[in-house]
Design a protein that fits this description.
The protein is α/β, with parallel strands linked by helices. Among the domains are: 229 residues, Rossmann fold (3-Layer(aba) Sandwich); 236 residues, 3-Layer(aba) Sandwich (Rossmann fold). The chain contains 25 helices and 16 strands. The protein binds adenosine-5'-triphosphate. GO terms for molecular function: ATP binding; hydrolase activity; RNA binding; RNA helicase activity.
Length: 756
């Protein structure tokens, strides 16, 4: 067993072993054949199972292990200046003592260790892997003045870009948009000018207004045409986006834009909606089609009227988030769509002021890899328009993060991930309360927490919303408003409403629930105004979604690629607004990821200590009560405890809930296993940082509230959430094949995540 397995050993259950002792060889078996005697002896002397075998070894192992812990801890103490692991001997001793008082932490059990069924629970703060990064080599210059890089440009206006006058007035009056952003300034003149008819490859920062950059000049050109157009004139532009949410959002922008010209009508075609009503809308006529690839192709193949809409009028095909379209395997679908569309004859004499060929526009965060292949297939003689300023920053193929985004990174041992997330959410909530102290009506704070899979979203949503039933469901059960008496965050005053609403969003939810959850999160109304809205989500929410005023993005699980990282954090700091993001990394190999993403963060980041900077401010000067005891009903008599004791109690409360609530336990088990599976799907170029073999599975289990690692990683949960692997024959599948199968399943799951 490796040194890193220490935590696992601490988790073993001590068995009474009495039955086995009695049966051992003292009885003499005589008579019969030797084979029968041997058989009987073996029956009487049951084979020690794996756990018992390991326990036998444990007694021998434990002493050297204990010594190793001791020396590890001393080493950590000596390494002053390192991040985290600043626990001192007295703290460890204190925790150990308090473990007795609070029902079992550290190396002590809830029951005396020799009691049958006693469980040994590993401490949060001990045996954690050392953090190697001692210095922030990409530190942010806090004193430097930063200009928001995706903000509207102060010196320019839309009139000078030859945008239609009615549209400009509408932008100013109804949409409060007066100045173009940098990418709009580059794209609009190109698309408006009749001389330019080459295809476009648009590559720009997140939140820089790409949607308007392509929609605005198209609508402007249609409005500038001499011929009178109406909804039956045909479809001028087909916009394809990888997710239903993004397609719906682009459709909403098109709706907003065409409010000044009601005769132009956009239409939305996405999976999860009724095809019949989409057909009816197509029959009525539309001028812009926005949709997801599968549904668009379906209509083009099976709905005659959809093909008729495109004949003679179609001039623009826009593929938004091209890299994601490719990553999700839509290449074939897109090729089929293009084949059908290009097969429809174009009557260039009908709208002579529009380009006399179909212009293809590809928007993508990256210009390399798969998307380049898509570009080669889709685009002809294309022009690359990049939001990057010449000579500024990296030579990379990806746009850098917006300058005003405040990136923070924290390196957190696996056992402490959940409690550190709790601490961070608590700190943001405290800041939210503080900013709203005098403000009337209160400011709404929005935070997004990105996780690797749907099951993990379910677990964290449950863990942070339903500790004590002090909540009420708002939209089905995907939106929960926490109510008076909730104890999920330590800053809650039990006598007041917590002013926190929690959301979950992932691809396994039905489309209507996904849409209504997003709508609830995005709108300021009586249910949301002045509150802290926290959304737990998968990458389904990372692409292109323009949610208003997201103040913070937390990447609890590392992104699956740099593009995903940039898109996740790009949900904040949009269109010149401020925003901050926090990336969690594990000590060890994951620390190398910082070098990998450095070039996309040219202005640097802050490195924060999970204990001093997150846990201590969150848990200090209070008394977190154990969930199984109501000792201090009188708030004034509460004894103030140390932050580490409070953090441990908070975590134990989650663990206790899992022990008591079998439904929550199955949610935690599923989340843990899906998390590990998802971890195996990191792309090969990033495997050096995210290698499942380097994960400490026992410690990781702790961050899902589990006191030990589930025995069978490949086990399937039956309907009751119980392990059904016991009933199955042991698989002959080799470890390597199993890993590959799990990885393939995870990829499949992540694709179906988006449910096209
Ligand atoms: N010229 C402008 N002035 C002010 N706000 C703008 C302007 N253009 C766009 N916006 C706003 O900026 C936000 C981001 O726009 P949009 O969603 O189009 O960005 P994006 O570049 O497509 O982002 P992503 O890469 O994340 O998809 C939207 O809320 C939009 O209304």
């Amino acid at each position: 067993m490796s040194a890193n397995d220490d935590g696992m050993i601490l988790n073993f259950v001590t068995s009474s072993g009495s039955a086995a002792d009695e049966a051992t060889g003292t009885k003499k078996i005589t008579g019969g054949r030797w084979k029968d005697r041997r058989k009987l002896r073996m029956q009487l002397q049951p084979k020690p199972n794996k756990r018992e075998q390991e326990e036998e070894g444990l007694a021998d192992d434990l002493e050297p292990k204990k010594k190793k812990h001791e020396s590890d801890r001393k080493n950590a103490e000596q390494r002053s200046g390192k991040i985290g692991n600043r626990q001192t001997k007295s703290l460890d001793d204190k925790l150990t003592n308090e473990n007795h008082n609070t029902g079992g932490r550290s190396n002590k059990g809830q029951l005396p260790p020799n009691t049958p069924g006693a469980q040994i629970v590993s401490s949060l703060f001990t045996s954690n892997r050392d953090i190697a990064t001692s210095k922030n080599t990409n530190a942010k210059d806090e004193s430097a003045l930063v200009n928001p890089s995706n903000a509207p440009l102060t010196g320019d206006d839309f009139e000078s870009l030859h945008t239609n006058e009615t549209l400009v007035q509408h932008l100013k009056g109804k949409m409060e948009i007066t100045k173009p952003t940098s990418i709009q300034k580059k794209v609009i003149p190109h698309l408006i000018s009749p001389k330019n008819d080459n295809d476009l490859f648009i590559n720009a920062q997140t939140g820089s207004g790409k949607t308007l950059a392509f929609l605005l000049p198209i609508v402007s050109q249609i409005l500038d045409m001499k011929s009178h157009v109406h909804r039956k004139s045909g479809c001028f532009a087909l916009v394809i986006a990888p997710t239903r949410e993004l397609a719906s959002q682009i459709y909403q922008v098109a709706l907003q834009l065409t409010q000044c010209c009601h005769f132009l009508v956009p239409c939305l075609l996405i999976g999860g909606e009724r095809k019949k009503s989409e057909k009816a809308r197509l029959r009525k006529g539309c001028n812009f089609i926005v949709g997801t690839p599968g549904r668009v192709l379906d209509h083009l193949q099976n709905t005659k009227v959809a093909r008729e809409q495109l004949s003679s009028s179609l001039r623009y095909i826009i593929l938004d988030e091209g890299d994601k379209l490719m990553e999700l395997g839509f290449e074939e679908t897109l090729t089929d769509i293009l084949k059908i569309v290009h097969g429809i004859p174009l009557n260039s004499s009908k709208f002579p002021s529009l380009p006399n060929r179909i212009i293809h526009i590809l928007c993508s965060a990256t210009t390399k890899g798969h998307v380049k292949k898509l570009g080669d297939v889709v685009l002809q003689n294309y022009k690359l328009i990049s939001g990057k300023e010449k000579g500024k920053y990296s030579k990379s193929e990806l746009a850098a993060v917006p300058d005003q985004l405040k990136q923070t990174i924290t390196i957190v041992p696996p056992k402490l991930r959940l409690v550190t997330l709790g601490g961070e959410l608590n700190n943001i909530t405290k800041r939210h309360y503080h900013s709203n102290e005098d403000a009337e009506p209160g400011v709404t704070t929005r935070t997004m927490v990105f996780l690797s899979c749907s099951d993990s979203v379910e677990f964290h949503y449950e863990a942070f919303s339903s500790a004590d039933s002090a909540y009420k469901n708002c939209v089905s059960d995907s939106v929960r408003e926490l109510t008076r008496g909730s104890t999920v965050l330590p800053c809650f005053d039990l006598s007041k409403q917590p002013q926190v609403v929690l959301y979950k969003l992932h691809g396994s939810l039905s489309q209507p629930i996904r849409s209504s959850t997003l709508k609830h999160f995005s709108t300021d109304n009586d249910a949301t105004k002045g509150k802290h809205l926290i959304m737990f989500c998968t990458d389904v929410a990372s692409r292109g979604l323009d949610l208003p005023d997201v103040g913070a993005v937390i990447e609890l699980d590392p992104p699956f690629s740099v593009e995903d990282h940039l898109h996740r954090i790009g949900r904040t700091a949009r269109a010149g607004r401020s925003g901050e993001s926090l990336l969690f990394l594990l000590p060890g190999e994951e620390e190398g990821y910082m070098d990998h993403i450095r070039k996309y963060h040219p202005l640097g980041w802050s490195l924060v200590k999970y204990d001093e900077d997150i846990l201590e401010p969150a848990f200090k000067a209070l008394h977190v009560e154990r969930s199984d005891k109501q000792q201090y009903r009188d708030e004034n008599k509460k004894e103030v405890l140390n932050w580490d004791t409070n953090a441990t109690t908070w975590h134990l409360n989650v663990e206790r809930r899992i022990l008591e609530d079998s439904t929550f336990k199955s949610v935690a088990l599923k989340a843990y296993m899906s998390h590990v599976r998802a971890y195996t799907t990191h792309i090969s170029s990033e495997k050096q940082f995210f290698n499942v073999k380097c994960l400490h599975l026992g410690h990781l289990a702790k961050s899902f509230g589990l006191r030990e690692r589930p025995k069978s990683m490949g086990m399937q949960n039956n309907k009751n959430g119980k392990d059904s692997s016991e009933n199955k024959k042991p698989s002959k599948e080799g470890a390597k094949n199993k890993m590959w199968r799990m990885a393939r399943n995870a990829v499949k799951e992540s694709v179906s995540e988006f449910n096209y």
